[in-house]
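Q: Could you write out the predicted structure for this multi-component system? I'm mainly interested in how the pieces pack against one another.
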Amino acid sequence: AIQLTQSPSSLSASVGDRVTITCRASQAISSALAWYQQKPGKAPKLLISAASSLESGVPSRFSGSGSGTDFTLTISSLQPEDFATYYCQQFNSYPFTFGPGTKVDIK
Amino acid sequence: EVQLVESGGGLVKPGGSLRLSCAASGFTFSNAWMSWVRQAPGKGLEWVGRIKSKKDGGTTDFAAPVQGRFTISRDDSKNTVSLQMNSLETEDTAVYYCTKGGPMGTYFDYWGQGTLVTVSS
């Protein structure tokens, strides 16, 4: 199975900060990567598919990049509603796998 | 509006069985590949299994930890997908989410609210 690692595992940031989360795959997965946001007690929400395609309704401050094994989720200006845990997921091959998550909290 | 509503969660003893259901609306269910994803308390997300649309074969795939114990079925006439869980283990304790797959069942573009399954004696 393809393993995904995320860094950092957690970070503290302030409103307005630029935040970057990295996801690394154990083997090349082309652009078959998605990013999700999960708030406590809620279901995850799809933010980005195919590494860089922003889902409809997701604010443009979110962006994704990368291909192969290295991917990045960037929040250009952190807003209060962005404090959450973020997961990457590969869909290059079964079994689909998720990264361990990055928790973004308030500094 | 897409809606996925899970039901059937609860407390079950190790070795027992449980059947989860997911009622879907707001999209053409028969064309969708559907997956179940779970999240153990305080842990990350884990893909459990997937069923293809009937026009794409209707076949299923499962993660290794549940292979041979869990099955997924669908009823396109009722817009429902079900997860049958047998020989449950304490490690199966989690919130189970029903998800709609993106194109060819890739990523998960819609999620239900989740249903909690607790396996404990």
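A: Regarding packing and overall arrangement: Chain B has a mean pLDDT of 97.
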